[in-house]
Amino acid sequence: MAANLPKLLMLTVLTGLLSCGPKTTTGRNADPSQWPEDPSTQSGGQESKELSSRCFQKAASKIPPSLQTLCENEIKNNPAFSKLHAVLCIDKKLISSLSDASCGWDGNPESLNRFIHVYEMESDKQKDYQDVHASIISVPVAIERFMKPLRLAFENYDEFKSQGFQWLSGTREHRNLSGTTWEQGVRYRFRANKDLYDIGYQGTNTLYTLDENTFVHLNYATDDFARILSFSQVVIYQSLPNDKGIAIKLEYRKVSSQGLYDRAKKSAMDMARELMEKGYRNATKP
Question: Which end of the chain has fewer CB atoms surrounding its CB within 10 Å, N or C?
């Protein structure tokens, strides 16, 4: 038995190395079901926890009057926004971040996950994937410049593309059905090719001006669903000093898993990251 100990020890060491190999070479577990529930905890350690507490979890003492009016007149009265109303208007989260540029992602790809926070996530893999999450972007340009590509995307997608801006990969249709402006409210149809299936819906997106420095768009799906079963979004755009801006997106989505929960979860997270990256890139495009 003693003569076999070196061989047993070597086998044990090799087995241990092989069993943890993929985690060290990929940087994160390759199985999406094992990813942290909150992407903001994937990197950065204590710094990420502090940013989450200060920027995503901190409750404001009060909501600005103009935003409170929007909460009462538009967000509260639309069932599509019920989960978002609870986070923003009842719990008063994210409000304090409007004046704090350090709460927003600055374009560094290594830190992007820290600026996405998941408030609620369906963890039962027998059900459809859904979550409530927020993301924050800080841009070194005036907030109107950040908003310009978004306006074009909803009002005139062909013009959006002709100017070299980018939307979600695989997008094959983003059509203004109503022929209206963002302020009037745009009814639109969205379709994108993802892997072996389509995703999309018809929805409506309306921009509200709260004051000369603050804008909010309310965006939600209404019908014609493909894979996406429910979607709603509140985005606040805020001007900051020195021609800079910050955008806070709060979003709810439900995606048909069709027995592939992990795949639906990964796809949803990837889309959130991709739209952050492209939103920043569009805003800072020369």
Answer: C
What is the maximum span of the chain, computed from C-alpha positions, in angstroms? 83
- Give the CA radius of gyration of the chain: 21
Task: Say if residues 198 and 192 touch (Cβ distance below 8 Å).
Answer: yes
227 sits in the region (left: phi over 0; alpha: psi -120 to 50; else beta) called left
Question: What tokens appear for 240 in the block?
Answer: 């900051």
Sequence-distant (≥ 6) Cβ neighbours of residue 109 within 8 angstroms:
277
Mean pLDDT, contiguous 10-residue spans, the chain (286 residues): 40 33 30 38 70 97 97 97 98 97 97 97 96 98 98 98 97 98 98 87 98 98 97 98 97 95 93 97 96
Burial 98-110 (b: 16+ CB within 10 A, else e): bebbebbbebeee
pTM of the model: 0.85
Question: Encoding tokens for residue 172?
Answer: 């094959």
- Tell me which amino acid residue 216 is: V
Phi then psi for residue 265, to 5 deg, are -65, -45
Q: What is the pLDDT of residue 44?
A: 55
Cα distance between residue 14 and residue 73, in whole Å: 63
